Amino acid sequence: MPGFTRATSGLPGLDAVLNGLQMGDNVVLQVDDIADYAKFVTPFVSSALDSGRRVVYIRFAGHAELVTDKRAKAYVLDASRGFEAFSTEVHNIATEEGRGVFYVFDCLSWLLEIWATDLMIGNFFVITCPYLFELSTIAYFALKRGDHSFKTVARIRETTQVLLDVYNSRSRLCVHPLKAWKRYSPTMFMPHIMEGEAFVPILNSAEAADFFSYLADKNLSDGTRNLDYWDRIFMKASQIQQEGPESIEASEMVDVLLRVMIGREERMLLLAERFLALEDLLEIRKRMIGTGFIGGKSTGMLLARAILRKNSAFHWNDRIEIHDSFYIGSDIFYSYIVQNGWWRMLMTQKTDEGYFETAAELGRKMLTGTFPDEIREQFQLMLEYYGQAPIIVRSSSLLEDAFGNAFAGKYESFFLVNQGSPEERYAAFEDAVRKVYASTMSRDALEYRLKRGMAHHDEQMSLLVMRVSGVVRGSLFYPDMAGVGLSRNIFLWSGKMSPEAGMIRIVLGLGTRAVNRVESDYPRIAALDAPLVRPYSGLHELSRYSQRQADVLDIERNSFESVDLKDLLAGGYAPGWQYIFSVDPAAAEFLRSRGRGDEEARLVTFDGLLGETDFTELMSGMMKELELGYGYPVDIEFTGNFAADGRLMVNLLQCRPFQGTGNSGSQVIPENIPTENVFIRQNGNFMGGSISRLVDRLILVDPAAYSALNAQGKHEAARVIGRINRLCGSPGEMNVMLAGPGRWGTTTPAMGVPVRFSEINNVSFIAEVAYRHGDLVPDLSYGTHFFQDMVEMEIFYMAVYPEDGECEYNLSVLEGVPDVMEKLLPGDSAFADVIKVYDFGKSGCKSLRIVSDAVKSSMICFCEENAGAAL
Q1: What is the rounded radius of gyration, in angstroms, for the C-alpha atoms of the chain?
Q2: With 80 as the cut, is the pLDDT of residue 150 above it?
Q3: Which residues contact 871 (CB under 8 A, 6 or more apart)?
Q4: CA–CA distances in Å: residue 293 to residues 156, 181, 431, 652
Q5: Distance of CA 581 to the CA centre of its chain
Q6: Arithmetic mean of pLDDT, 655-659
Q7: Is 802 within 8 Å of 678 (Cβ atoms)?
Q8: Contact call for residues 833 and 855 (beta carbons, < 8 A)
Q9: Cβ neighbours of 730 (radius 10 Å)
Q10: Structure confidence at residue 685 (pLDDT)
Q11: For the chain, what is the mean pLDDT?
């Protein structure tokens, strides 16, 4: 705690009124004009500098410069970078400058032009004022009278040490102290008129009545002072909409609202400006809780629907389900942190030393916080609107779903079956909100941001609350289908396919099985120009590589469940299911030979949907229209349900830019490579475009040795690979290839190697090798979060099927190449038989090269005798 050392304001009369300033004071002046604030700042700065004090000027506003004395140190801040970046910079300045500094801040009210909400200005003051107090500083702040809600002024009053009302009353400067902490005199809180250097209190009753009557007239309000600045903006927007939505004023208001609701990413703002009208933005506001941005996921969903609506060539409204989503503004996220007292911890997390360690502790705390009563009331009203309908609470952060940064799977989303008493349903919802907030501190999210140079970017978490799309069947709730679609197909498994046609990954039930790699399950993958051509070349057991379970919401149990498809079929076919299920002929014949029906031979294939309905054309047309609107390939999430009249209705849940990988042109594949020099050669089943690149290091997991490990050993093997990954440096420093059995990134060790993406984020090439022991078979992971990570990191991917007659896979080429596993990690030598690390760049006798031709859908990985030899 600071001592109460006296200091001067530079105005002897004001010092007399307040009994001087005290080290630790934060002084807030409410003014009508910035010029009045300057009359107090100038003597304060001059007297401080003359007495040898350090003075720091925090400059961020567009008004006239307040501190011009060159002896003061000025920092120019960009408030448009957002609340977090701005507040962090002020915190860091105060930390660096240390104790006993005198500060002058530009008028805080100017921040309304950037942040558009009183709430965040109040939050800024609440976190900054106590820190300056601890550092025993004196800081001057100003507010424009009438620009802020009563609630915001009350928060500032409660936090600051000195609050002064400043008036120019009939050409006389008047100061009315409203708060002076730890000070008192019989006349201190009377209005004082400046006369020369003195401030004279108004003691005469007639003069006091006259003065306060003047103030009452001056401060007459139409009630808007009870409103946040945010609400006043939308009141004005509504008036403009009623007067004429095509006016210049309406266009200007659209620009204002886009920048306070949609975000700061210019490409997304340009899209929003093209497709969202003032009416659309006002509709969003009606369904918004709190203030701030709605986030990337919400923006993408709304933009996609707006793009389709504007297409007059097709009546998309006849085939797309309406939505009634709610948006929880990004300001609530920071307010949650500030009001629960964790802001200082967040500042520590922003440092290099605390980036991961403090994040873990903060993430745990974020699971336990409380929300303000007014937010809780809005949450409750929203839940009352949905009743007991299942909902999903989805992350929608500022950085999500932008151009080049999908954040796929990095933040959490939670299904809520939404059953039970109102109190139980509310508790479950609030818990889901906390968990999504806490996921901003997850290791994977932090690794992703660090890897992509966004570790210190302003990353507020908004939320998208959606009604779950589906149908109640018995006690279960789920959609007929759900999946992901890509407008560009960059993993061609047949020469008949074109990248421009796009593809889908689709499942029966909730879409969790489409975006995650799930144990023993294979979603249906379809290229939209050849939808019935299956991707698994050489794998003929149809039933083994089909979906076995569906994810559903169990109404009776109030829980998310995975159920066997045979249990769903026990109740008979639902409308439209004839397009989803097919009979496996071989299995049906086998069952009939034993006197059993063919019910157990029915598989989820979607063959009827893909080959007998307009679904393929519908999805192709939708994604082409969205790609045209975005001017960029897109990635979508959707559900589908059969209506009573047999029509398939699609619910468009998400849309984001999709970043392709590799060169789309042709690359010459070298001919006459001796078979003994070929490591991998195949047609199709790769992703990464046309390349010709050397491999410096190969990390190879031996399938037999890996399969012999128990579950714990397989998890530990994944951690060892993570440690090797960290030793490899970035892909620009070393080209690393990772090859192993089954699925990389699976959650189930029996299916492959359970690495987290942050444990393999330095590799340049990934090979998933089919190994017949158990289910160690690659999964064409199009549309999964793992797939998105590979695309964004520009990782070249191969699915290798050694038993396919057209695929060559030859481990003998590795003979003579040094295995440096034990040298790299001597403490993990127990895994030396499981994990091999071959350094080609240092072998001196061999190099390894990958060459692929995306146009001809062929690739080869082979050894060259002379390291670095050119093709």
Answers
A1: 32
A2: yes
A3: 668, 670, 692, 849, 851
A4: 24, 36, 22, 21
A5: 36
A6: 86
A7: no
A8: no
A9: 11
A10: 81
A11: 88
